[in-house]
Amino acid sequence: MPVKAVLFDLGLTLTKTSPFPEIYQRILNHFGVKVPIEHIVRAQKLTESEFDATEYPVNRREEYWTEYNASLLKKLGVEEKRVFLAEKIDKLWWEYSHLQVFPDVKPTLFQLKAKDLKLGIISNSFKRDLKHVLKKLQLEQWFDLIVSMDSCNCAKPAKEIFLYALNKLRVKPVETFFVGDSMETDYKGAMAVGITPFIIDREGKVPSQYNKIESLTDLVSIV
Asked: SS3 letters for 1-32?
């Protein structure tokens, strides 16, 4: 059956940023707060285990990152102006993230569109962040569908988020490719609903038994 749609993960598939702890440290430095990077790494791991965005009350989604940041800052021992800093980290995140698009992205999207394929994004991000990133990198024009955690109150690898995207695009799983960088959330999540998955393997680290591509441009000859 011919391919009708290609869906993508966003972070580390289409876009890249500095590592989380580095971004955090830059913003804190801006406000005169000096914290060793290893402390941020440790605090991030602890905070990640306490916060699940998919279980956060829908009416409080706007507060998610501020509360996440406040919890992380507390673990770092930051007491003074903690709420102020938590809000500023949220507001300034993308400004300090060194956000970039991979060089193979736009040429690939152009050629896939020329083949009259439907294109979409499924990301474990909030809608507001997705919109900001896509607008900043001038990517929004390429996609027929953008699915975030807000869209169906679920996240990859849950089947529901993939099925939601298929339903919106009116395509079948066997007519769809999904490309991502995570074996657990992207590859296995897509495969579980019958979508053909591909892992983007720019560094050549993925075992050969998986469907993998070294560049997004490889997709053009596959679809």
From this structure: CCCCEEEECCECCCEECCCHHHHHHHHHHHCC
Query: How far is Cα 84 from Cα 80, in angstroms, rounded to an integer?
Result: 9
Cα 52 to Cα 184: distance, rounded to the nearest angstrom: 17
CB 67 within 8 A of CB 124: no
List the structure tokens of 99: 């956000």
Cα 98 to chain centroid, rounded = 15
The tens digit of pLDDT for each residue in 16-40 reads 999 999 999 999 999 999 999 999 9
Instruction: Output the six-digit token pair for 28.
Output: 């804190």
Averaged pLDDT of the chain: 96
Instruction: Write down the pLDDT at residue 200.
Output: 98
Output the six-digit token pair for 110.
Answer: 């152009």
Tell whether the torsion through CA atoms of 56, 59, 65 and 67 is positive or negative: negative
Angle at 219 between CA 214 and CA 221, to 5 degrees: 115
Residue 74 φ/ψ, nearest 5 degrees: -60, -40
55 pLDDT more than 90: no
Question: In 93-214, which residue ranges form alpha helices assigned H by DSSP?
Answer: 105-114, 127-136, 149-152, 159-169, 188-192
Q: How far is CA 160 from CA 142, 177, 181, in A?
A: 24, 16, 20
Contact 173, 161 (CB under 8 A): no
DSSP strand pairing (15-16 vs 100-101): antiparallel
Q: Are 195 and 177 in contact (CB under 8 A)?
A: yes
